Amino acid sequence: MRLGVCSACLPELTPHQAAEATAAAGYAGIEWRVSAEAGSQGPAHFLRNNRCTLRPERDDVRHARRLCDRAGLAIIGLSGYVQAGDLRGVEQLMSLAAEAGTPRIRLWAPPTTDGGFHEALGQSIEFFGEVAALAGRFGVQALLEMHQRTICPSAALAKQVVGQLPPHLVGVIYDPGNTVVEGSEDPRLALQILGEHLAHVHLKNAAYERAEGGGPWRHRWTTMDDGVLDVPAILRLLESAGYRGWVSVEDFSTDRPPREALAFNAAYLRGHATFEPAAGGRP
């Protein structure tokens, strides 16, 4: 397997700082967040004012490619926020991926709507069929991420959408951290369901907590070693299943500053699984 990190979880760092810190911590690549809402002045946040973001423009992508080349890092993929059904947006993101020299982009299924699942499912199957045609044209694989509050929070539902498509054109991002929130399946079962459509992995951890005085239980993102997920067991299952792709850290916890979190997560994950050596021979 190969170890990378999602720039989305480094909101305080600029792309230049992220490339340097990622290489120094011993990762092999970066999965870049792409959004027109790139960070500016003000407090950094994972989803708002995230400074470690590329604008969907060729100049930004070319700059990120130069940064990664200098640091000896691969560009794992581009994580965009294209709405389901927006083929023009998919085409633009694939064009940028080709410019970046990366073979994959991240997409989502439609958001959950009251009473609209079956219609949304049919539309998603049709949409990803058209996405597969674009993937063949650009030579860029489209990845459907399992994500809460979409109609594909689980492996079983993601497989319903892409199961009839060639896996080299359309695959699935297995995100067990997201399934803590919604879509929980036994990881062994999830990997069996995905089969050849398992194309990429995001790793983070989460737990549930309750406010003082009661109220509903709510999830919070935790450090990799402290949450509902048995991360070492998931890594063992991936290895035993023969998975040899990327594992991208997507740590949204705030217990450690970004550089410290980068170093901790790399050491923790490498302590529980065998990853290819990072660029420049770093462990």
Question: Describe it for me?
Answer:
This protein has 283 residues and is of the alpha/beta class. It is 37% helix and 19% strand. It has nine helices and eleven strands. It has helices at 15-24, 58-71, 87-100, 117-138, 155-162, 176-181, 187-194, 231-240, 258-270, and strands spanning 2-6, 29-34, 53-54, 74-79, 104-107, 141-145, 170-174, 198-203, 205-209, 218-222, 246-249. The protein has an eight-stranded parallel β-barrel with strand order 1-2-4-5-6-7-8-11, surrounded by seven helices. Strands 9-10 form a two-stranded antiparallel sheet.
Question: What is this entry, summarized?
Answer:
This protein is of the alpha/beta class and 283 residues long. The chain has helices at residues 15-24, 58-71, 87-100, 117-138, 155-162, 176-181, 187-194, 231-240, 258-270; strands at residues 2-6, 29-34, 53-54, 74-79, 104-107, 141-145, 170-174, 198-203, 205-209, 218-222, 246-249.
Roughly how many Å is the radius of gyration? 18 Å
In quaternary terms, these chains amount to single chain
How are the strands of the largest sheet arranged?
1-2-4-5-6-7-8-11
Q: Termini distance?
A: 13 Å
- Quote the beta fraction: 15-25%
In total, how many beta strands?
11
Give the overall form.
Answer: globular
Largest sheet: 8 strands, parallel, barrel
Number of helices: 9
Percent of residues in helices comes to 25-40%
List the helices and strands and how they pair.
Layout: E1 2-6, H1 15-24, E2 29-34, E3 53-54, H2 58-71, E4 74-79, H3 87-100, E5 104-107, H4 117-138, E6 141-145, H5 155-162, E7 170-174, H6 176-181, H7 187-194, E8 198-203, E9 205-209, E10 218-222, H8 231-240, E11 246-249, H9 258-270
Helix pairs in contact: 1-2, 2-3, 3-4, 5-7
